[in-house]
Amino acid sequence: MAKTVNRHLNYAWIEYGNPRDGGAFTRGLEKLGWRNLFSQLPVKTDAWGIRAQLKSHPLLPIRWRANSLLALPNERHDMPGKPFIGDPLFEAYRKANDDKKFDQAIIDQNADVATWVFSPGLRKEGEEEFHWTAGSDATDYADLVAISGHGAAGNVWGGRRTASLFLALSRAGDSASPRLKYVIVPACTNLSEMNLEGWLPAFRRKPYPLHGAFGYENSYPGDQPGQMIFQQFVTNLAAGGGAENTILEAY
């Protein structure tokens, strides 16, 4: 990337854990003139407040957390016993179906999440209808995507079920967004040397290879330290009016 960090680019943050890092990231990028891709979605108010609506994935909460609009796929608390998260979307599905069908729906949705990370688009159909698409039929794309939570062996997760990034890459072939340049993975170990082979399909695909992936070789602390890390990252991006550091130097 050139020294100048361009304005009017789109980003998206997918959060399986504590949202503080995503909040710091969002606030910093918006000051640089970037736009949250999810901000164009229609909204609805339910028992947990305002959420964005994505017709193709009605079980995916996209809510305001840490003053940021984040996708929140995790369905269980990260604690002993791993009880269900009581999001109204999850509760309504479990009430209408059963826990077994809910579990399978979450598995399927996490597979879609992992695929979307590497080809992140939204397709608009009508005034109030948006679909999450990983194909070339999108009407808008993200230029940068972050997916955060626990991590290991190419997986990101929260309380239980995982988004398998490497499995998604192995199945995607050359299908890719024409605009995605960078993926950030604030999660443990996924950018370690031993995981290099799993990332190679993203950099070899044609005609739109990924430009860079950022994350951690060892542990990622998340929570308040994660917030401080991403505050510093976006501060580095903004230095010199966005002309001092490349995204690699900022990271």
Determine Rg (CA atoms, Å).
Answer: 17 Å
Structural shape: globular
Number of helices, where a helix is a run of at least 4 consecutive DSSP H or I residues = 7
Structural class label: alpha/beta
How far the N terminus sits from the C terminus, by CA atoms, comes to 13 Å
Average pLDDT figure: 92
Topology:
Elements lengths: L9 E6 L4 H12 L3 E2 L6 E4 L2 E4 L9 E4 L2 E4 L16 H9 L2 H19 L3 E4 L5 E4 L6 E2 L2 E5 L1 E3 L2 E3 L4 E3 H8 L9 E3 L11 H9 L7 E3 L8 H16 L8 H4 L1
Characteristics of this structure?
4-stranded antiparallel sheet, 22% strand, alpha/beta, 251 residues, 5-stranded parallel sheet
Can I get a quick summary?
With 251 residues, this protein is α/β, with parallel strands linked by helices. It has seven helices and 15 strands. A five-stranded parallel β-sheet has the order 2-1-10-14-15, covered by helices on one side.
Descriptive report:
This protein is of the alpha/beta class and 251 residues long. 31% of the residues lie in helices and 22% in strands. It contains seven helices and 15 strands. It has a five-stranded parallel sheet, with helices on one face. α1 packs parallel to α6, α3 crosses α4 and α4 runs parallel beside α5. The longest helix has 19 residues. It is globular. The two termini are 13 Å apart. The model has no long low-confidence stretch (mean pLDDT 92).
